[in-house]
Amino acid sequence: MPHDYVAPVGVEGIYIINTGKWRIQHPVLAEEKCVKCGKCFMFCPVGAIKRRDDGYHIDLEYCKGCGVCSHECPTKAIQMIGEEGK
Amino acid sequence: MSHVEVMTGNQAASTAACLARPDVIAAYPITPQSSVVEDISKAIAEGKLDALISEVESEHSAMSVLEGAALGEARTFSATSSQGLAFMYEPYFRASTLRLPIVMAIANREMISPQTLWASAQDSLSVRDAGWIQYYVENNQEILDTILQAFCVAEDKRVLLPINICYDGFYLSHMSERVDVPDQAQVDAFLPQCYKPDHIYLDPDRPMAVDPLTNGDLLMEYRQKHLEAQQRALTVIEEASEVFFNLFGRHWDGCVEAYKIDHNTKGAIITLGSMTGAAREAIDRLQSEGLPIGLIKIRVVRPFPKTELRELLSGIKAVGVVDRNVCFGWNTGIIYQEVLAAISGSPSIVHQPFIAGLGGEDITIEMFETAARQVVTLAQKKNGSRDQETIWLRSVSEEVHK
What we know:
The structure holds 2 protein chains of 2 kinds.
Chain A lengths: L8 E2 L14 E5 L9 H5 L5 E4 L2 E4 L9 H5 L5 E5 L4
Antiparallel strand pairs in A: 2-5, 3-4
Chain B lengths: L2 E6 H11 L4 E4 L7 H11 L6 E4 L3 H13 L4 E5 L1 H6 L1 H9 L5 E6 L13 H4 L7 E4 L3 H16 L7 E6 L7 E6 L2 H7 L18 E2 L5 H33 L7 E4 L7 E5 L4 H13 L4 E6 L1 E3 L3 H7 L5 E6 L10 H9 L7 E7 L8 H16 L10 E3 L9
Parallel strand pairs in B: 2-3, 2-4, 4-5, 5-7, 6-7, 11-12, 11-14, 14-15, 15-16
Antiparallel strand pairs in B: 1-8, 6-13, 10-12
Helix pairs in contact in B: 1-2, 1-7, 3-5, 7-9, 10-13
């Protein structure tokens, strides 16, 4: 993957490891149970949860599947589901 | 116009640093470096230098502050010695691998134990493979001139690497010499007045992630580019030396200096740093006796000027390397091993390691005469062994060990 950078930097979307590949389970958010408290957003150790006007979204490109969001969710709106084949 | 002052090596370092218009300085006091940053601090307090100084609680923090500052487009300077450098090891690596052109003086001091304060390049040579450029200089004028050149080389787009200017603690740091001090306008004509990075920076208007988690494939590419930049620096260092000579009239021979070597020279002594002065005297004396011996001063250890050294040694039969440091596990000094690596393709050269001057012991003219005579003997010997045992040049009295 040759590129022009001489120092380790990342700009939007490129040259950063896709940590989602490391995952053996992924979070699934049940919208109807979500109270939009933002705890998952605050606790996600890799910043893979984004806040938007309509609520919270999980970026599966970077989510490592650690399950911290599911553990912290007060309404049990996030379930961890095993990845197929892992 | 320049003017002449009598100043210590540390004053030469702080004077040069101030003339280079740094934006941020961070350092923690350690002997024999302390007065470098004390004087910069004083210059800022008196309004002579417009810069920020960060009085940190450790060398680890000093280097970390400078890395943040350099990412924020600041020109940065620091100074340290020995244990301070050792404590800085972790961010020291990051400075070079993030390609930040930080300039740092090192007043060389022996490493513990036993407790010691005095000269040896053991500290900086032990981190020679951490990706920085390292100059080793001979006198106070060369300290001042080389710090100015270092900013120029470090910020060159072909290089973009941090640089150490290493000089022997006490022998230079605390010894006063005549130093020609250029004025600000002269320095401004030599060195751009600010540092403007476009390869790595922290700027809210141009957001980027700095130092993200990176896979091995990409890491190898960064390392390859880093090694290539080190090799390009050999040329840039020579260029900076030339440009400096044209503006200031003082010539420091780029990466390597040959002293009194010509086609008749059969043996050479190799030196680093302040010991070179005594070595020059010894060579003068022995040449006046007709001995075919010359001197090579290595000024830049990283990148190592292997091609230039090989050329200088092309007609030489024997070489002796005097190290004020040790290479544990090889039973020699470090520069000896570096020289050996450079001349490994020249099987006809006999090489002799010497260790001298550890912990600030004086390396006398007489010791250099002893070393040089040994090298001449080896040069004249037929079919001698190439691999010589280390000779320790010591003046210690027997009574010490009673």
